[in-house]
Amino acid sequence: MLKKKFLLLLAAPLLVMTACNKGPASSQELPPEPESSVEQEYLDPGMQTVAFDEISNLVMINEKAQAYIDAMHAEEEYSDCPYTFAALDDDLDKVDVKDMLTNSDNSKNRPITISWDKGDLEYERISVVLCKDWKFQKTTAYPTTGNSVEIDNLERATTYYYRLETADGMIRSQVQKFTTADYTRSLNFDGNLSNTIFNARDLGGYMTSFGIRTNQGLIFRGSEINGEDFTADGQRHSKNVDELVLEKNEQIFKIGVELDLRTASGANNMTASALPTAEYIRRPFTSYANFIKNPDNGTPGTLKDVFDLFANADEKHVYYHCWGGADRTGALSFFLNGVCGVSLTDLYIDFELTSQHNSVRSHLTKNGSYDFPGMLTAIKELPYYSDDKTIAEICYQFLTEHGIEEDTIERIREVMIPGYYTGMEEIWA
78-109+185-428 maps to which CATH number? Predict the structure, then answer.
């Protein structure tokens, strides 16, 4: 029954396209062209303006990661039901991350470059003003004395509008626009220190079984955040937060909660976040099959506390991490994305992209202690598991079995899925 629903969902756009291509009957007049609702902003014809160059690259991840994601999505086309665990035995197992991302050590995104020919226009300083709405109501300025700027940390599959303005607010170009490519949104916290926050990604931006892409800019995953050097459990940890990192957080990420999944000793008994905007909360987690068997890690209420934080991520953005943002962080990400209806393909991608920074994490084979296949096996051993259930349904039941209230899960879906309402899973999945 589930497969039939999925095939009908795929066929629906084709039926719409067929209807749209028929056109009006010959005896009917074509309807008038609708007037544009966009308020065009015309510049003084005598004003000197600039001509923008074409943006050459809108893919903000490195080429190896792009090739890996393309390969995963290409195989997904052959999967009967990418929103169920039945795809575990499907063509996704033909793509091995170790063949594509080994030793890449590049978890940062690539900035895009906006450049222009200034012609005879003279200025000492000018800004590219960027926004996500053509009315320029909420903008970010990127100043320069030259004729180009580099911009990172943009959201995936998102249309941006931009123009040039001088320091006195004089507009020096017509409005331009571009749309970023649809790839995982990796994050750059780079400051001026030799060490940085790494392996950081936006949890949002994925298409879901509900037919809607999840919100970006609310929940982030990544490596530890350190305001000082310290040694914990025999390992050296380096300061990776400086004024530039704080400035980026204030302008872009706006993190309100730092959720630390390490033990007290592993975190050097930290009690406050290095980010002044963030409340520091520590809830020790475990990973892989151990997470499935004991998600509270021996302390009842641990998982509930964490999901209560996610349920308010629209009010306080959450950044959660362990040490490298890989295993404990990855297990939690799997269920948070899973309950929001993310496909198995994208759940694999979100986990395996960690391979860009620190050792290969594969959904196919165990790599030392990195036992993602063991987690999948443990999920399939749950008493309520069924190939016919969607991933979202199984994650929902797993969470409620471990103390998460249904209202909390519904609230998380409302936060992460635009226009979500209870019952959408039955319609779309």
Answer: 3.90.190
Confidence (pLDDT) at 101: 87
Place of tokens 């797993």: 398
Among 11-15, 152-156, 195-199, 347-351, which is the least confidently predicted range?
A: 11-15
**How does pLDDT run across 60-84, given as a tens digit for each residue?**
999 999 999 999 999 887 777 788 8
Distances (CA, A) of 344 to 74, 89, 273, 429: 13, 11, 33, 13
Question: Which 8-state DSSP code applies to residue 231?
Answer: E
What is the distance between the alpha carbons of residues 231 and 79, in angstroms, rounded to a whole number? Answer: 47
Contact present, 277 and 249 (Cβ < 8 Å): yes
Q: How confident is the model at residue 29 (pLDDT cuts 50, 70, 90)?
A: very low
Helix, strand, coil percentages (3-state) for the chain, rounded to 5, are 30, 15, 50
What one-character DSSP code corresponds to residue 386?
-
- The β-bridge partners of 143 are 127
Number of neighbours of residue 54 by Cβ within 10 angstroms: 6
CATH of 51-57+110-179, one of 1.20.1290.10, 3.60.60.10, 3.40.190.10, 2.60.40.10: 2.60.40.10
Q: Domain boundaries in the chain?
A: 51-57+110-179, 78-109+185-428
pLDDT reading at 292 higher than 90 = yes
Q: 3-class DSSP state for residue 178?
A: strand
Where does residue 242 rank: exposed (0-12), middle (13-18), buried (19+ CB within 10 A)? middle
Q: Which residues of 97-114 are buried (b: 16+ CB within 10 A; e: fewer)?
A: beebbeebebbbbbebeb
Closest to 413 measured CA to CA, from 386, 382, 392: 392
d(CA 127, CA 145): 8
Angle value at C-alpha 221, between 219 and 222, nearest 5 degrees: 150
- Alpha-carbon distances of 96 from 99, 101, 103, 107, 186, rounded to whole Å: 6, 9, 14, 18, 21
Instruction: From 94, 55, 57, select the one nearest 73 (Cα to Cα).
Output: 94
In terms of DSSP bridges, do strands 112-117 and 148-151 run parallel, antiparallel, or are they unpaired?
antiparallel
